[in-house]
Amino acid sequence: MTSETRPGVEVRGAVPPGDAVLWSEGDRESFGVLFERHVEAVWNHAHRLTGSWERAHGITSETFLTAWRTRAEAAPLRDSALPSLYLTAGAVVRRDPDRPPIVDGRAEEVVHRVDGESWTREVVEAVGRLPQEQREVAELCLLGDLAVADAAAHLGVAETAVRSRLALARAGLAEDTPDDEARARTALPAELRTRLRAEVDHGLDHRPRKSSRLPAVVTAAAVLLAGAVFVLRQAPDAAPEADRPAVEEAAVTGPPLDRKFASAALDRCWSAIGRQGAADRSRWRPVFTVGDSQIGVVAARADGKPLFCQVIPTTATVTDPDAAPGAGTAAVLFSREGVVAGVTDVDWRLTALKGTGPNGSVAVRAETGDHMFVARTGVNPTGTAMTISETDSEDPTAVRTLTAPAPPLAVVSDRPDGPAPDRASDAGRALGDCLARASQPLPDPDSYQSGALVTYPGGLVVLGRNSGSLVTCQSDGEKAVAKRDRLVGSSAPAVVRDTRFVGDLGIVIGGELLPEVATVEIGPGDEPLRPAAVAGRTFAVFVPSTGPAPSGIVHAVARDANGDVLFENFWKVP
User: Fold this and answer.
1) Boundaries of CATH 2.60.40.10 in the chain?
2) Cα–Cα distance between 229 and 87 in angstroms, integer?
3) Rounded CA gap, 202 and 12, in Å?
4) If you write DSSP's letter for every residue of 306-342 in order, what string do you get?
5) For the segment 79-135, what is each residue's pLDDT rounded down to a tens digit?
6) Is the pLDDT of residue 464 over 90?
7) How far apart are alpha carbons 535 and 463 in whole angstroms?
8) CATH number of 426-572
9) What angle do the packed helices 28-50 and 82-95 form, to 10 degrees?
10) Beta bridge mates, 520
11) Which of 392, 289, 270 minimizes the C-alpha distance to 341?
């Protein structure tokens, strides 16, 4: 059974956070929203700039990592981050125009290698031969399909200058290279989207060894950074140099150690198992750190024995040092948040994890230090056949098989987001099971209170919410897929947050509610309204395929406990 999530629902009275707001948040979750919002466009633009789907994959990954590294000091000039991402992609291409593809040939296979790719390369070459000023506007407006105003803002020139350069660029291009074909967009296959997200997530974990600092006197100025115009601003919470967290390297080629984060995380993990008679906390020595405030991991040693401490906002997970193997290569932790960690008896320079399982494929680099390794895979590792090997090694013996380890010593909700979540009701059990099996793990799955539950032939969709997010989880018995959105916080009594087609059976519509809403009724077009499931300030309804067409209108009515109408509107369904 297949399903397709349709996040772009038109809802009156509710506006999703814009790019500028997400960028200013500066956290990994917000950046993930930006990634999902623009990755297909950036991937297509990278292909137009290179004429190669393989190179487009690597360019896309590097573009988002560059945006992440500059997020604290730079912001797009307008609300959309896409012009900045396009400019950054162009800079990445020109920085190393002849570098080989970063991924293997499967990128071409998944995209099915369009027949006109050689023609596309001719277009790319023609644009590349233009003078710099014309090439910039051609890449943005002809290949990237940006508006003249957006291009002007991000190039720091007048709109008239962009129009003039655009006219010259059009005249300079051959008549047999029409830009409309060059702009044709190819849908990003789900497999490549997943692989790109995993690569970017890994890159976010891997801190650069060296960084250059801008003078502190600069508080707001327009500069050209990595080929893109940004507004620079001094971070409002920037700490004095002496107060910044000490970041060290465990070894010359090893991963970094953020001592401040490691100390706080190990305190939480020690408290979690201290109730079971843990050893003296002072005998725990951090070796290196991976991740961020959403999912962070400390590789440490307790009395010399390997220990892994994973912390998310609400929960601490810690492995048993006494159960870790004393020799060999083995997994010690498979966490539901996608972390794979363990010990190794080899000194490989670069280490990779690969595997396939019910929740997708894994192909990521692992951080290693002091004969321990940690990787964030981006998928739920349950049931995954995993191997660890030396990257790019031709030695067939440089591969070790990882078997699923024993459960961790403790998984403790030490900083709950609210009351203990319901997992006893039908909706609670469905949500707990669906989130536990979700192919792409969410941080803090136990923080979500159960909400509306609807079933359809062969599957179900269940909603949940915590203090800041809404989660929609779909299960068909074999697979589970979870999607998280920030709460809109709209004044509208009812807000659609998710629509998904469930094969050819129909469509599920769900969203969030204000507390005073007691009932919701939804019907396609002029057909009779049908009651939606309402629970936990969420609603969901399954409309069979006899309902709205893929681009139809649904009628929605929300009432309070007295039956008074609080909200009546028509929603456009993609």
Assistant:
1) 426-572
2) 8
3) 37
4) EEEEEE-SS-EEE--GGGS-SSS-EEEEE-TTSEEEE
5) 678 877 887 888 788 776 544 333 333 333 333 333 334 444 556 667 777 777 787
6) yes
7) 9
8) 2.60.40.10
9) 50
10) 558
11) 289
Chain centroid to Cα 182, Å, comes to 28
The token duo for 289 is 């750190």
Could you give the angle at the alpha carbon of 440 between the alpha carbons of 348 and 70, nearest 5°? 70
CA dihedral 68, 69, 75, 81 (to 10 degrees): -30
Nearest Cα neighbor of 23 from 193, 233, 170, 265 is 233
Contacts of 79 (CB under 8 A, 6+ apart): 18, 19, 20
- In angstroms, the CA 514 to CA 497 distance is 14
Identity of the amino acid at 223:
V
Question: In angstroms, how far is CA 518 from the centroid of its own chain?
Answer: 34
- Does pTM surpass 0.90? no
Q: What is the mean pLDDT of residues 37-57?
A: 82
Owner of token pair 């810690």: 318
Band of pLDDT at residue 73, cut at 50, 70 and 90: low
Encode pLDDT of 292-316 as tens digits: 878 999 999 999 999 999 999 999 9
Asked if residue 394 lies in contact with residue 422, where contact means CB atoms within 8 angstroms, the answer is: no
Q: Compute the Cα dihedral for 216, 217, 220, 221 and give only its sign.
A: negative
Handedness of CA 279, 281, 285, 290 (dihedral sign): positive
